[in-house]
Amino acid sequence: MPAQSPVGVPGGQSSPRFRGVGECLSGRSVRLVLGVLVLQTAFVLSCVGAFRDPVPHRVPLAVTAPTTRIADDAFYQLALLPGEPVDPLRVADEAAALDRIHGREVDGALVLSRSGTADLLLVASGAGPLLAEELARHVTTAERHQGRTVRVRDVVPVAPGDKRLLSSFSLVVGWCAGGVLSASAQAYGARRRRPAGPRASAAMGVQLMYSVLAGLLGVLVARTLLDAVPGNFWALWALGSLLVLTVGTLTLALYEWAGAPGIGLALLLVAVLGVPSAGGVYPTELLPPFWRAVGPSLPPGAGLDAVDSIAYFRGAGAGGPLWTLLAWAGGAVVVLLGGVLVSRSRPPAARVTRRP
After folding, report:
1. What's residue 87's pLDDT?
2. H/E/C letters for each residue in the chain?
3. Alpha carbon distance 164, 5 (integer Å)
4. Is 56 exposed, middle or buried (0-12, 13-18, 19+ CB in 10 A)?
5. Mean pLDDT by 10 residues, the chain (356 residues)
6. pLDDT, tens only, 83-111
7. Residues 131, 283: contact at Cβ < 8 Å?
């Protein structure tokens, strides 16, 4: 006796509506949705953990004093502050202190008066307005214990359109998001139909062109159109292109090795760990120990540090972050080429076309 067809569906074929439900409830779809849920929860945990209790820790502070006794008293009171919020170091005079600030060697300078008890604190809100505020608060406390007063002067103010450095942070986050999304679009578009070598070469070529264009458009919007992020146009363009290329190449490399989970790993590094530890409103010195330790070594943190250096310090201090981005980009290229070589070394029968 022939099998009966489902009601209303001739030939025993399932309804397209039921087929769609089956695809949505397939094991692979459920695993992908659960993976996204894990990443989302981890992102919330990372952001809340990084930003819930900003406390300064060993912020570099230059101190200049007319006599050794005054300097010793100042260092003693600063050392008594709970939690070690500042890390004082002595410099010769105010000019030397300014050089240290503009060179991004210190985040502020306490200039002790030669006569009287009214001192001067130099801060650089371009390195973080909240950092400057916290520095002023703790130095004022230490000065009060000595019976001294202090006035604050901002020697590197932020641009009017970059309050709290939010515009700079948003620019970096946009560049990082573009790198992940462009690489993911290529990975899912190719679906591994082409051989590994041509696929990787084509993907890198497209990613390079995308990165140059994304870097340019980011600077045009944030600097030229909205007048929010200051700094040298060409330097910001080059930095943005490098940041997008670094994140995109990293995503492609992880996808080449692991497929769709590789994109999840890229999001873990860039979004879940990288974005909160970059700080944004809260500079690295205000973050808890874990995020303070990993932030400068991840692409978003290195990118934001370099943007701030270009925008407010004429590139001073950008060398380290640039080398960090180049190291990530170079490592990603090595991993990507390694994946190609492994794929080529497999026997033809062992090469299975994997869908993302």
Report:
1. 94
2. CCCCCCCCCHHHCCCHHHHHHHHHCCHHHHHHHHHHHHHHHHHHHHHHHHHCCCCCCCEEEEEECCCHHHHHHHHHHHHHCCCCCEEEEECCCHHHHHHHHHCCCCCEEEECCCCCCEEEEEECHHHCHHHHHHHHHHHHHHHHHCCCEEEEEECCCCCCCCHHHHHHHHHHHHHHHHHHHHHHHHHHHHCCCCCHHHHHHHHHHHHHHHHHHHHHHHHHHHHHHCCCCCCCHHHHHHHHHHHHHHHHHHHHHHHHHHCHHHHHHHHHHHHHHHHHHHCCCCCHHHCCHHHHHHHHHCHHHHHHHHHHHHHHCCCCCCHHHHHHHHHHHHHHHHHHHHHHHHHHHCCHHHCCCCCC
3. 66
4. buried
5. 49 52 63 87 92 91 89 89 92 94 96 90 95 95 91 96 93 97 84 56 88 98 95 97 97 87 93 93 91 95 97 96 96 82 58 46
6. 899 999 999 999 999 999 999 999 999 99
7. yes
From the list 68, 88, 65, the residue with the least C-alpha distance to 78 is 88
Here the tokens at position 274 are 């990288």
The candidate with the shortest Cα–Cα distance to 39, out of 243, 260, 255, is 260
* Residues contacting 270, CB < 8 A, separation 6+: 176, 179, 180, 247, 250, 251, 298, 299, 300
pLDDT in tens, 169-181: 999 999 999 999 9
Determine the Cα–Cα distance for residues 49 and 58; give it in Å rounded to an integer. Answer: 20
Query: pLDDT at position 259, please?
Result: 82
Residue 196, token pair as written in the block: 């590994």
Chain centroid to CA 266: how far?
A: 13
pLDDT for 243 equals 98
Give the amino acid at 83: G
pLDDT for the residue numbered 352: 44
Question: Length of the chain, please?
Answer: 356
Provide CB contacts within 8 A for 259, sequence distance 6+: 354, 356
CA–CA dist 189, 95 (Å, integer) = 57
